[in-house]
Amino acid sequence: MTMSPAKAGANRRFVRMIDLADDTAAIAAYEAAHSPGNTPAEVLALQRRHGIVELEIYRLGTRLVMLMEVDATFNPEGLDRETAADPVLIEWQRRMGALQRPLPGHSGWAEMPCIFRQSDHP
């Protein structure tokens, strides 16, 4: 993952995008895999262990948007290392990756920079 570290003492939000295969079966499989009870407990535990406070994925057609809130302990390098060493996490990444189509110029989820924040304005 190529993300900036969280600000010390404050939660930070990341927004990322990726596409799904333009196939109704792939879309259904992706949504089913993310339904409560279907995401492996190891995936959820890993996210929480590495400072991911909340993670939401929204879909419109084949476009997915991920909102990820992290705390000051967020550690993307540790998250990547642990994912690469655990067979359950490797299999999850393989299954989901087979259904996803990265945006042009990206190899996975593309991070979107924030260009407007209402609270920055008087």
Characterise the protein shown here:
It comes from Sphingomonas sanguinis. InterPro entries: Carb_Metab_Mutarotase, Dimeric_a/b-barrel, Rham/fucose_mutarotase. The structure is a single chain. Strands 1, 2, 3, 4 and 5 form a five-stranded antiparallel β-sheet that branches. Mean pLDDT is 92; it is low at 1-8. The longest helix has 13 residues, at 87-99. Strand 2 and strand 3 (63-70) form a beta hairpin. Helix 3 packs across helix 4 (87-99). This protein has helices spanning 24-33, 41-49, 76-85, 87-99, and strands at 12-20, 52-60, 63-70, 100-101, 110-112. The chain starts with 11 loop residues before the first strand and ends in a 10-residue tail after the last strand. The chain contains four helices and five strands. 34% of the residues lie in helices and 25% in strands. By secondary structure, it is of the alpha+beta class.
